[in-house]
# Entry
Amino acid sequence: MTARRGKRGIGGLIVLLVILIVLGVVLVVDNGSVDRLIGRACEFVAATLSGRESGASGPVSKNKPAPKAKPVTKAKPAAKPSAKSKPGKPKPTSSANVRPATEAPAHVTDSPGWGVARYALPSGSDTLYTLVSREGRYVVSYDPRTRNSRWAAYVLTRAEVGVKGTTRATTFVTDSRLVHKGWARSSSADYTGSGYDKGHLVPSADRDDNRTENKATFIMTNVSPQKPGLNRYVWKSLEGKVREWAAEHDSLYVVTAGVLVEPKGRPFKKIGSGVAVPELFYKAVATRDGDGFQAIGFVIPNIDDCNRDYRVYAVPVDSIETLTGLDIFYLLPSEPKYDKNFWFR
# Structure
């Protein structure tokens, strides 16, 4: 519609120009005036067509579609700062410098005179409760729950059984190490009127070279409740036989204690301030035999009327391991054999 109006305007201007020229020719006789009139008319028409004259409208361009806007790219969300690790269980300390419970603790194997004695140490015990008696040259694994030792381990040699340099001590004393650690402990008073003897684990007669080592066997961590019929007869006889074997075979590895596993779920009988009474006692003995080893065990009931012949209680060491959960003589270079004829010739 706008384009048509523009064309009609141009036609009108041309007609007007023609009229002006004709009038000029008729009314004015001066040729110069006519030329000037025609020139002005031409300038007017040209100005009108070019849009330079005031009030003139320029050529109308068709409206072009607006360029499509580029899609706005959504800014990627900034990376969330890494969240701090939530507090949780602490990572376990590297075990590179921690000895497992199945190894002899350093304070045992690094002690003077314990070069070969480590073969007597059982595994399966918490080394936290492993106590060394340097004076008595033995080691115990103490159980505060029962106020007994799970095992006592030592080496007995021919030289030791061949010397008696002191008389037997008579006074039992509380282990001062337990007092320092704050662990439950037994005392001599717990046995008073109980009907049980203070039975040695490491016998007094196995450590009688001097007064100091003999007194070390009278510490209460080396004692468990034993019925008199056990302590004074068959147990005492077995201890004497072990010394004979030491004299014969030069060196013995010995592990002994009460069985501190509650039988068939029954709670232990207790005496005094809470000292558990084992129902069974065991002793395991090993020695070298040529290129290998021989071992024998004994499991004896803690009763008054037990058999006085210790030989009827002889068993493979495996039987003791089943009862106690320990791995006895596990550090020996080879698995010891069980041959009763080796021990009872």
